[in-house]
Amino acid sequence: MADRYKPMRPPAPLPGADLPVVVIAGRPNVGKSTLFNRLVGRRQALVADTPGVTRDRKEGVALVRGRHVRLIDTAGLEEAAPDSLYGRMRASSESAVHEADLVLFCIDARAGITPADEHFAQWIRRQNRPVLLLANKAEGRQGTASALEAYALGLGEPVALSAEHGEGLTDLMWEIAERLPQPVSGGQDDEDEQDNPDAEADERPAGPLRVAIVGRPNAGKSTLLNTLLGEERMITGPEPGLTRDSIAVTLHDGDDTFEIVDTAGLRKKARIDETLEKMSVSASIEALKMAEVAVLVLDATLGVQEQDLQIARLIEREGRACVLALNKWDAVEDRAATRKAILDRLSISLAQMRGVPVVTFSALTGVAVHKLLPAVRDAWTVWNARVPTGELNRWFEDMLERHQPPLVDGKRLKLRYITQVKARPPTFVVFGTRAEQMPDDYKRYLVNGLREAFDLPGVPIRLQTRGTKNPYADR
């Protein structure tokens, strides 16, 4: 592809890299995710009455008394065998506590002190990390009185609050700010906040390249993200549907900063009947809408299933660049035939995915995973492509000569010119007399020509039409 089609991505480091780390910990269903959402200022984590909704660590940037902090929501601390799902969830939470500058240990004031609270309070005291004790669900006079029981945990004076109702958050902000390590930069966060006090911490117009990892359950999405990060960041295992929420992490590869979101597996609508799963699917679709590039992970041993095609259509409908990631490639016997079958199925069932970049790897062993991020970067470049108007119209004239516009109601369409109105994805408008009546097959002819002539593989191409009015029509 010529250099003129490669826009330069403005460098913008993510502000969360060197921020103090605040971790919310506690047993399940004490309101950790609700508190997380309150502190980051939006519904970023799934919240439900079911215990154990949060399984993976959820990160966000919160503004606390003029300072930005990296806030981490963790799975509930539970006693379980190390190899079990809850054991793996606890290990992930313990890992987050070990890197914390401050731990917010949360209990349920309405339920009182439980043996699990006492057990994990003792464990946290041994970690030698600063701890702030929170008595959540302490709304009203009775809740405040119940919060005093938390003194028995030996973690200092509890902060009574109600994350659900927003009570006590001001006091909590002050307490967190007093316990944070002093900033090295000399108050840069304060200056930024004065310049733009209404700016949201997560709004980074020139920020990282946003990537969503999507696919069916058990395709290996979380294993892929762990391999990219080089650590067991996500909960993985043979059980399908382990990931419930959309988890964003930041990754630097030396050239770019990526914000990669691992999403819950998308099943057929007919099989989704639980409220929690509906929330997970909504979070996955929202993550896809916010992404620039979607990595569609397929289990290469199963080939392309109908649900894979539905997800690919969703990516195309949202206008996102796409990279096809064929996982478990080491278990495929006839690789040439498998690749051909997958690409043929896509080209037949989804013409807009024609030419989509394909990366084959094994997320479990890490073989060839390094090829993924360069493919993502290349797909992003195509997605941002802009074609000069002069060159575009020379191509357009040639296309009209090769295959002149069709007759509609006995009259031939008179197409005048074409222009690109936007990128992300590439969007073009054709102007001419009665251009709005252009048949779909002629639109496909032009779209395929655009894709081939200007090297735009694998990205959605939008083609719109605008009719020109005859000035003598009303005379």
From TrEMBL:
Bias kind Acidic residues: ranges: 188-201
UniProt KW Transit peptide keyword: no
Protein origin, superkingdom: Bacteria
Keywords of this entry: GTP-binding, Nucleotide-binding, Repeat, Ribosome biogenesis
TM regions (residue ranges): none
Entry-linked CDD domains: EngA1, EngA2
One Gene Ontology term from the biological process aspect of the record: ribosome biogenesis
Assembly description: Associates with the 50S ribosomal subunit.
Full protein name: GTPase Der
Source organism: Acetobacter peroxydans
